[in-house]
Amino acid sequence: MTIFSEELQDTINFAIARISHEGTVVTVTPDYPPYILVTAGKHTRKQKLGKFLNSASLEPHVVKESCEVYKITNSDTSEYTTSYSREYVEVYEHPLYAIDSTSKSCMTDNDSVRVYNYDDRLALLLLHKDNELCGRTLIRWDTNEYVRLYLDHNKIKSHVALALLAKAGFTKGNLEGIYLELEYDYNRVVMPYLDGVDNFNVVGDYIEVTRYGQYCAGNTNGYANIGIVCEDCDEVHEEDRVFYVEHYDRNVCECCLDEYIYCEDERSFILRSDCEYNNSTNEYVSPSYAQNNLCDTYNDGYYDWEDVVETYEQEWHPASNCKALAEEYNDCRYFHKNDSDVIYFDGDENIVKGYYVKAQLKELQEQFETEDEE
């Protein structure tokens, strides 16, 4: 029995529409290639397909391709059988080669093909000769399309394989809109190399194959990178939501980046916990900036030098926390206001009133007592 493929039938219908006259019904049925049977009204004639299509003024390349499809579709396939399977991993263990190519399938022995099991619209159409596998292709039931043929060229010719697909009712298509299982592996997902449409999106808990997808399934190692891992939270994030922190040579997501401070002097983000706080400006600064430009006070953190004073104990304190002595002591004029060794003296005829270190006041008093005795 000879048949027209779905694709060829569409071309023939287009030709019929061009040559039909009002009131005359034209039908075309298959005969043995390259002939067809053309019926117009009550008259039927045998004619070559190419001549019929040329009469409709179709493009030469369309006529040529249609004749080839007609011949291929009706090739002798009696030695071969077809079957269907969803045992993807097992089937892909067999080395097969792309149609009209010497390139072996890059997914041979790659168990990433297990993710095809997620969508019931997908299956494998298998070609057999003498009960041995000689070809396979992914097919989808919802569109009656196949994706790409892989064959054992020593057991089956390309035109025979195409004829088997045509007789099974499948035309060339792709995986657009098919769902795959979402299986993470750190910053990548399990993903076989996809023929045809090789882009995809992650949608909730599954993957959708789409030509407008954000990610590419063009790797042959069974994985596809889908983002960058934040080295603080170990989660995968989209590339534009991860930032490189040069100070630590690490990638950090925008959420974890809240724990960092951007330091102008370093031109990099630094962990808040590793930064120093400038109490004069109420800003975090890098450790190197603090060490080189600020004063590390005794117990009050870092301040600008203009905001600190040195006390008689040779300690640096914020000026706001200090008071001036009535006279210098140890070459310093200041003391911390909580210093229990400093007292206020009301003054006398020899010593002016003000703040004095107890030891300082005692020395002054003893000095004047000695002078009085002399």
Number of strands: 33
Our estimate of the beta-strand percent is: 25-35%
Mean pLDDT: 91
Radius of gyration: 44 Å
Q: What distance separates the N and C termini?
A: 143 Å
Low-pLDDT parts are none
Number of domains: 4
Helix content: 10-25%
Number of helices in the DSSP assignment? 7
Question: Can you describe this structure?
Answer:
The chain has helices at residues 6-19, 49-55, 60-73, 88-91, 158-167, 287-293, 358-373, and strands at 26-30, 35-40, 43-48, 80-85, 97-98, 122-129, 132-140, 145-146, 150-151, 171-172, 179-181, 184-185, 188-190, 199-203, 206-209, 215-216, 223-225, 228-229, 236-237, 242-245, 250-253, 260-263, 268-271, 276-278, 283-285, 295-296, 302-303, 308-310, 316-318, 322-329, 332-336, 342-345, 354-357. The protein is of the alpha+beta class and 374 residues long. The chain has four domains: 6-73, no CATH class; 80-172; 179-229, no CATH class; 316-373, no CATH class. Helix 2 runs antiparallel to helix 3. The longest helix has 16 residues, at 358-373. The model has no long low-confidence stretch (mean pLDDT 91).
How would you summarize what this structure contains?
The protein has 374 residues and is an alpha+beta fold. It is 19% helix and 34% strand. The strands form 12 sheets. Strands 4, 5, 6, 7, 8, 9 and 10 form a 7-stranded mixed beta sheet that branches. Strands 11-15-14-16 form a 4-stranded antiparallel beta sheet, with no helix packed on it. The protein has a 3-stranded antiparallel beta sheet with strand order 1-2-3.
